[in-house]
Amino acid sequence: MDPAVTVDVSLTQSHSFDSCKADSFRLATPLLANRRSAPAAAGAPAPTGTEQQHEGVFLQPATSTASSQDAFEQLCNDGSAWSWANFLVKLYRHTLGLLKQVYLIFMTLSLRTNHLMLTFRTLPRDFGEPHANADHLAAKFRNAIMPARGRLHDQRSRLIKINRWFLEMPFLGIPGIVRFIDVRTQWFDEGVEQAFVNGIQQVVVIAAGYDTRAYRLGRPGVQFYEIDLPHASRHKQELVRSLLPADKYPRPEFVAADLAKVKLADALAATSFDPTKTTLFTAGDGSGSQSSRWAGS
Length: 297
Description:
Layout lengths: L3 E2 L2 E5 L9 E9 L1 H6 L11 H5 L4 E4 L4 H13 L5 H25 L4 H14 L11 H8 L1 H8 L3 H10 L9 H21 L4 E5 L6 H4 L6 E6 L1 H14 L9 E4 L7 H6 L9 E5 L7 E5 L2
Parallel strand pairs: 5-6, 5-8, 6-7
Antiparallel strand pairs: 1-3, 2-3, 3-4, 8-9
């Protein structure tokens, strides 16, 4: 057995609990330096595969009795010891948790999800917040789709600030949601730009929504494909034609397809997509969900 340093760790409940229980644990830390420097003792058994894999720091019960384990499970998971803090947690889960769902529906009822994500994406840049994303075209789409909302953003209206405060209000709202969308936009931008450096030849944007990377980041030698539902794709093409001159902004190849009914490969088969070329797939940053992966020959 590996030599170990034994430390007693007392696991106790918060001071706010009426009763205080503790369980002692043994911190076993293999002395790797000694293992490497000292030769194995004569006749000492060689470490098993399991022992070789667990060369880090681990916790194990000081005693293996069932009563000790039961006490620890009750301490960590049962929550039977009542306290004011414990009561507030239960109250939130059973009442405010449901109220939060109703509250968020009310706060976002006036906007569709992709419109909501579009306003979140433009808000930090419109209000001059530091380190805002570089999507300067999203505001064009927003102003065309939601002109009243666009004017409030352009004027940096106090109403937008109040709306954001209520939306991000602790307990009932989603704290940090606007900054999250902002940072996510930057993360996707950096991923696409790094793909260019790595020699990517095609970019497939699934659930494109109001994604603008094909127009902001497009370059010669790289073909973008924007896939979306047929009605969403038609609307996007109308916006692009009316807002973004073709001589100034590169055009992706639009693919109108419902991927719940059509396979991705079949949707791309009707386009100029070349499956032998190295391709970056991104999904849904224009409409609220996201993921990305590489594919290539």
